[in-house]
Give the backbone structure.
Amino acid sequence: MTLLLSAGRLAPAGAAFEALGQSSRANAMGEAFVTQANDASALWYNPAGLANIQGRQALVDYASLFPNLDVGPDINSWAVNYAQGLAGGHLGIGVAGLGAGFYAENGAVLGYGRAAGKRLRFGLGLRLLRWSADGYRDPATGLRDEDHTGTGVGVDAGGQCKLLHWQQGVFTLGFSGQNLNQPEVSAGGGTGIPRRLSLGLGYEDQRYGAEIDLEFAGGVRRVRAGGEYKFGGRHDLRLRGGASGMAGDDAAGALDSGFGLRLGRIVINYAYHYSAEIAAGGQQRLSLGYQF
């Protein structure tokens, strides 16, 4: 999402839907999640990851974005995702929203992931995206501009391939394409959502999980890296960390950390994100999941 300060208030310059559907687990690992996606939030990252889910799963995420931003209203985001087995694979459905007072983004996504043999996973997804902005009211005259909205449908696809086993773990190659059709969402036309392509290489064993991704979106290249250490034990405690950075003249980056904890069938994930791209302090994200 891109925002501008206009006529003494915050106004939307574009509906990029960048933060929509982000999960605490992925956020804590720098969003390097193309190969490690294996929960209900995979809907938003790589639909092929749905094939890795065991049983049924529900996941709820909430975050307050840019809490120290000193202009405009508070920005909050949320997501609710659910996945269950269907026809040899896993079907997932999710809804998410982002609100900034007069401006809002909302989305719904439907995805399906399935295994093709022991090494391959593939998935497809459709996402319905909508943004809305209240018209500006002139404080002097009381006149108000028209409200604005835009809606589009995006197509997603993804894959994961287990390359080779090493020591006690496995290397996996992953690919994810989001909004492949660059859906048009501008009320006046001419503003399509950028296609987002990611290629990732990950390694995972009983103690460690690590991944590095190369992402292309809207002419911007970004490198993402992250991982987790699994303490295991009764509550399956996991510590996570990650970082990301843009390449080119506008180079900037972000650092992330967090943890995961399992209490019976309940899973708690927490993430802290600090970005050098926006001078608004760190932000926190929390999720609760339930494994049926």
